[in-house]
Every structure is written in C-alpha cells, then in structure tokens.
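Sample pair:
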Amino acid sequence: MALLEIQGVTRRFGDFTAVDDVSLAVEAGEFFTLLGPSGCGKTTLLRMIAGFDLPDAGRIVLDGKDLAGSPPERRPVRTVFQSYALFPHMTVEGNVAFPLQMAKVPAADMPAKIAEALEDVRLTGFGKRMPHELSGGQRQRVAIARALVTHPTLLLLDEPLAALDAKLREEMQIELINLQKEVGITFVYVTHDQTEALALSHRIAVMNRGRVEQLDEPSRIYGLPATKFVADFIGHCNLLSGPVTSGADGVVALDVPGIGVVRAAARTIPATGAPGTVALRPEKIRIATFAPSDAADNRVRGTVADLLYMGDVTVYKVETEGGARVEALLANSQSGRTKFFEVGDAVEMSWAVDAGHYIAE
C-alpha cells in the first residue's frame, strides 16, 4: 500500500474548481513532485494534504489513516514554504526548537534533537545565529531543519527554491536530493519549474486546470508526453499537427502543413484521417547544409530565420519552404562563440522516426 493516497479529491472556490477529481499515490521514501503552471491546483492540493484546506469531495489517506478531521498540528506532516517563515527574533536553534516545544518534548531532550536536525542540513555551528545573519540558502536549510526535527512521515515543500538566484538554486537542488536520500523521509514537492522537477523527482504529476495530465518518471514525462500540454510545458518541443495518412507496425504518418509527411513512433495506430500531433524535441533534429546520405526518412529543407547562442548550444529556428517554423538545437563543440549557420542560410533538417512521439488528439 502506498504511503499517501489521494482518492478522487475535489476542491472548489465558488464556481472555480481548483482541484478536479484528482487521484494519485505516493510511495514511502519517494521524492514526488506536483508540477504545473500557476493556477493549476498544485498548491491547493498540497494545502489539503497539510490540513490547511479541506476537500469538498474525496479522501486523503496517509499511512492507512484517513486524515479527515485531523487538524494540521496533529498530522505527521510538515511544510516548508517559499518564504521560509522563520521567526526573525529567534536564533536558528530557537526556530528549530519551536515545533518541539509545540509537541511538548521534554526540555532535556531538545538539544540533541536540534543538533541532529542541524547536522542533517549541514548547519552544525550555526545554532546561535539570527536569520538575518544567514544567506538565502542557509535560511532555507533552517526551514527544512525545523520541519524535520519532529521526524514527520511526510515533508511538503511549496516552491522552496523560487526566491533563490539561479546558481544557488542549482546548488540547493543537489542538497535537497542528497538530504532526501539521507533522512529517508517522503517528499512531496510543488514547483512550476520544469527543469527543477526533472532534476529532483522520482516521479512527477503534471497538473493542468485542476487535473493530472500525466503521472510518470521524469524521463518518460520528457520523452513520451501523453498530451500536447505536457509536451509543450516540459522543456522546448516542436508540435507538428495534421491528419493521419497511414499507420502500421508502430509507425504513423501525418500530413503536416508547411512540412509534408512526417513519420513518428506510435503506441497505437489511429484511424486514417484522425487528427494527431508529433512531439519532436529540438535536440533530436540533425541540421546540415545537406542531410547526410544515411539520414532517416524525415527530412525537410528550410532557411535559418533566427538563432540564439546559449553557450553550450545554439538554438536555430528554421522556416521551411512551406512556411512552417521548426526549432532545432546543436551543441557547440568548440570554445568561443561558435555558430554553424547564420540567419538566411539554407539548411536541411532530418530526424529518425523514433525521434518523434505521436500524441492523439
């Protein structure tokens, strides 16, 4: 049995349905992420798990116990917020001690528990400091230590890295992964950052308009998106849409306006004439003056309309002879500002059949 079960949970605010009949399960020891744009329902769902909000329908079951009627302070759940919510007038030790005091832990037992929590987040020796004397990353770790000190069954994290700069955010991602492994507590993490979700999670639930569009491992979310929304929301993706012209043996062909026939892998073969979309990641496309003789049978000529040098890669936007726009990505294998093509250059793009993923509409 899963540690956390969300069973048909719905939450409405007037005429607006924030969470719409969501069901999912989180395993013990898992780093599970709720991912989606603002307003998709992920934070509302997190608040209901924490007990700060109540569902209009459905059940939330933790470790076999229905949480209905359990107030937040009586749930074996702790939450780390984006703002950290540290008490500015308390030392680091005071902040970490607060949940222990609320739980009426004997005073004699507190120092060891506080020291253990600070050691878990690598803040040994920082106990006497005030929050304003800490960096953003250190304050975030204090907030996590405070949440961990009572050894909750579940740790909820609501966009905890959103306020950090890019470099510190990357460092904290690595720290969170290591911390979760070390303490062994189940994490449920909320973010709108796709890269963050892919880097941190064992599994991801992609939410949109109150529903879960896809729940899977990061590699499958990225490589095998179940819907156009997931394909478009996770990273960069070309969505090539058109009617199905044929299909057999796990391969489907679509007539895409401005490109022509595009062949892609498909789990099920749709009916001829059915509308469909091929999700094609830019890094899967080969771009050259002329496609090599051994290139796969998906090939199309065009002109470089725009490019974006990103340091390690260059992103090209190619306009086909039929007027469609396709994004392709090339790694910059040499140092310096390497650009293989310039705006206006004629190029030919090619990609393998299994580089594209068919999505039914």
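Helices lie at 42-50, 92-102, 110-120, 136-148, 166-183, 194-200, 218-223, 228-233.
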